[in-house]
Write a structure and sequence with these properties.
- Strands 3-2-1-4-7-6-8-5 form an 8-stranded mixed beta sheet, sandwiched between helices.
- The protein folds into 3 domains: 126 residues, no CATH class; 225 residues, Spore Coat Polysaccharide Biosynthesis Protein SpsA, Chain A; 109 residues, no CATH class.
- Helix 10 crosses helix 15 and helix 13 crosses helix 16.
- The chain has 16 helices and 10 strands.
- Strand 9 and strand 10 form a beta hairpin.
- By secondary structure, the protein is an alpha/beta fold.
- Helices cover 58% and strands 12% of the residues.
Length: 506
């Protein structure tokens, strides 16, 4: 093992230790806060039944374990990783004003004495100013990421084959192809697989084939065989050292491929995911999906990428080293072929990374019907994948993904049950519940707000206004999660439409 690899592994372990320690301490302090606050609440009429008090206490502990602890860990770990990526050896210094601020907040919270409070407020203000000055001074020393051009050092740039499966995509296929042709990376070929389209997809792509002197290639399936077969056809024709998978309704940022290729400086890297962003965040539902996308990718998936252990490379933008996928067939044994394909590569010992600054833009469902169908397919497909790849259950990230099917519905039911009890038992009970709500929602909002600031294009901060609605969106997701889990565990399966095919997935 090289010293460099040993050092990177140690840094990853250190970040996990710091994040876990912070999460455990924060969860413990939060667990005490409702009791402390309630001791200051002077409402004589608060006398909930014993059963209700027991339910709240049990629910609170369960919520701490299923939501507060993991959310705090994921968020802290991701922020540590992003800070380290940005400032490298200067990163630890930024923890000083942050640590002092956290200590001062705790003093205000747990020791509400005038003198201590005023001193703590002054310390928080000074720490904030110090933090801003440190960030400003460190921007000049910001560590640039290694580029693909530095890696090849004047040598031949590896060829990238971009495979785009398309079925009736006449409205989006031109933008998808154009976004690949306009990449800053020069050595690219585009392979569009028309999977039996009945619209003008074939005609549109044929024009690009004629205009681009062999850079754009077209494969035609006479009938719709499914996305998995379209990808297999494209991969067979690809002669690049790397194969990029993207959907026909996806548009790549101009430097997407250039940034993603740099990850393969690690010789063990077999695949990498791009950062998928929603392009049509034009109504409430798509904006709420954007908040979810940013959290899942800039917090959870980024945490996985710090140890090059990304679980799933999304179909909307991912790149594979051809050596890593040699002989691997994209299968329809699950309804999420991208998840199954990624697990196959991980099983063979390859690392999977993510480049958060390589953005691909995709369209999200605009109505609840399409959204529900999409999520049922995604959630059920991942369950199918984990069942097939039981070997992966030794991976903590996979274990957490599986437990999420049980814990997510439970935590949301617990959270929503408390205010319902408040309505049933009266206003006095709502006063008793208030401290729990404040703690829960504060962690919820912070963990969803941070990714809005971390996003490369910095144009999503207005979505902060939608965070109150996001609670209900998350509750609806929990219902879908519970439904898919019950359908899976009872082996009833789910009926979905995928392309032109109607599938009863079991």
């Amino acid at each position: 093992m090289s010293q460099e690899k040993f050092g990177l592994n140690n840094m990853s372990i250190f970040k996990k230790f710091v994040a876990l320690s912070f999460a455990v301490i924060s969860t413990f302090l939060l667990s005490l806060s409702p009791f402390l606050i309630n001791s200051f609440v002077k409402v004589d009429s608060i006398s909930p039944p014993i059963w209700a008090t027991i339910l709240v206490n049990v629910s609170w502990i369960a919520f701490l374990v299923t939501f507060i602890l993991p959310t705090t860990f994921f968020t802290t770990y991701a922020v540590l990783g992003r800070t380290s990526r940005r400032y490298r050896e200067n990163a630890p210094a930024l923890a000083i004003p942050i640590g002092i601020t956290i200590l001062a907040i705790l003093l205000i919270y747990y020791f509400p004495i005038n003198v201590i409070s005023w001193i703590s407020y002054l310390v928080i203000s000074l720490s904030f100013v110090a933090f801003l000055l440190m960030v400003k001074n460190n921007e000049g020393a910001r560590y640039p990421l290694l580029s693909i051009y530095e890696i090849v050092n004047g040598g031949t740039l590896p060829k990238v084959s971009v495979v785009i499966p398309a079925y009736n995509e006449e409205l989006s296929i031109a933008d998808a192809v154009e976004s690949v042709l306009n990449q800053t990376y020069p050595n690219i070929e585009v392979i569009v697989v028309d999977d039996g389209s009945t619209d003008n997809t074939l005609k549109i792509v044929s024009k690009y084939v004629k205009m681009n002197n062999g850079q754009v290639k077209l494969i035609r399936h006479e009938r719709n065989l499914g996305k998995f077969e379209a990808l297999n056809s494209g991969v067979k024709l690809a002669d690049g050292e790397y194969v990029y998978h993207m959907d026909a309704d996806t548009v790549l940022s101009s430097d997407n491929i250039e940034k993603m290729l740099a990850l393969f400086n690690n010789k063990k890297m077999g695949a990498a995911a791009s950062m998928v962003s929603i392009s049509n965040d034009e109504n409430i539902l798509t904006r709420l999906q954007t908040i979810e996308y940013l959290f899942e990718q800039l917090i959870v998936r980024y945490g996985q990428s710090l140890s090059n252990n990304v679980i799933i490379c999304p179909g909307a933008g991912c790149i594979y080293k051809k050596e890593a996928v040699e002989g691997e067939y994209i299968s329809d044994r699950t309804v999420t072929e991208d998840a199954d394909y990624t697990f196959k590569i991980r099983r063979n010992g390859w690392k999977i990374g993510q480049e958060v600054d390589a953005v691909s833009f995709t369209e999200a469902p605009r109505n609840f019907s399409a959204f529900t169908k999409q999520r049922v397919r995604w959630l059920y497909g991942v369950l199918q994948t984990i069942r097939i790849h039981r070997w992966s259950l030794k991976d903590p990230w996979v274990i957490w993904a599986w437990l999420g099917y049980i814990l997510t519905p439970i935590s949301m039911i617990i959270l929503l049950s408390i205010p319902v009890l408040g309505i049933v038992l009266g206003q006095s009970y709502l006063a008793y519940f208030l401290p729990y709500a404040l703690m829960s929602f504060t962690i919820f909002f912070i963990s969803r707000a941070i990714p809005l600031a971390l996003y490369r294009h910095h144009d999503k901060t207005s979505l902060l206004l939608y965070l109150p609605l996001y609670i209900f969106y998350n509750a609806y997701l929990s219902i879908i999660t519970l439904y898919t889990f019950l359908a899976w565990i009872t082996r009833r399966g789910v009926k979905i439409k995928y392309g032109s095919r109607r599938i009863h997935a079991k």
